From TrEMBL, chain B:
Protein known as: LrgB family protein
Compartment(s) of residence: Membrane
Organism field: Parendozoicomonas callyspongiae
Source organism phylogeny: Bacteria, Pseudomonadati, Pseudomonadota, Gammaproteobacteria, Oceanospirillales
Membrane topology, from the record: Multi-pass membrane protein
Main location: membrane
Keyword GTP-binding attributed: no
Amino acid sequence: MFFRLVEKMNAMRGLFILFLFQTLGEFGNRLLGLPLPGPVLGMLLLFLALCLIKSVPDDLDKSSQVIVGNMAMLLVPVATGFAYYLVKIQQQILPIALAATLGTVIAIVFTSLLMNSLIKKESEDE
Amino acid sequence: MSNLQELLLSPLFSLTLTAGSYLLGQKIYKLSRCFPLLHPVLMAVIPVIVILHLTGLDYLQYREGTEFFTLLLGTATVALAVPLYQQLHLIRTHARALMWTLVLGAIFTPAVALGLGWISGATEVTLLSLAPKSVTTPIAIAVAESIGGLATVAAGTVICAGIVGAVIAPPLMSRMGIHNPAVRGFTMGLTAHAAGTARAFEISPVSGAFASLGLALTGALTAFTMPLAWELIKLF
């Protein structure tokens, strides 16, 4: 009876797995005093668990897609805070804008050139 | 009147405001045919600020009311383990090139952000918030907070970097003569996380898959190395 109930509510089961690993991550973060943030530790533990069972349970796959796909909504409060922050501390706008624009362009040039030349070298070696 | 005030201060109001504003932002974004500069998060900030202004709620009260979404952001971080696991098989195609690009790219990108911030007068708090600028937002927030940066600045910078990358990366790489879809995708995932990955999927499924891999690997690597590296730096 209980299992049938759980089977029907599979979206909740996926969410339960995510919450469980998030809790484990926070537990590890506090217990072990690691400088790694709780959610990151939770991600590592879940990744290791997936490597062990060698597949992604359907419920977990669905719930992950829903929460990752709608992550942007969860960012609205911090993005609002960013707008308030910029208005308040205007002398930091320049460094932030430079890092986000020029910094990203430089990173794109570096990364794409590096990987492109590595792959070319790889195919020449073969 | 005080009843109304109570409702404004309850999480229900803040959460409804956030969800509604986001749906509006998404609508504008879709109407503009996914024009990256009209990113749904940026569009959603406008109605939130307007309504906060009209109701007299301040940001901290709003932030407290949306605490539940902050918690779910952590859940989203945990959920990133799934795409990481699913895209991992792609590594085999260009194992060595991908690993070198990942490691060097994940060091170079924050180094450039820090360098640019440093020369233009960033404070230490800003620098610590800029460091994780190319990784997916929930990880960037977690990393920035753990090393002493600000979640808001980290999130804002990451979102802006993602938008810049999504707009500029495809034409820039074309002009540089880089046409390999694996390189184009991985670069966009590594430097422009979710926005770049979404754009890469629009260009081709292969690019999109490599972008997801780039996003997941860069996020995971930065999440583990940056807090530890900062602990080491602080020792000296």
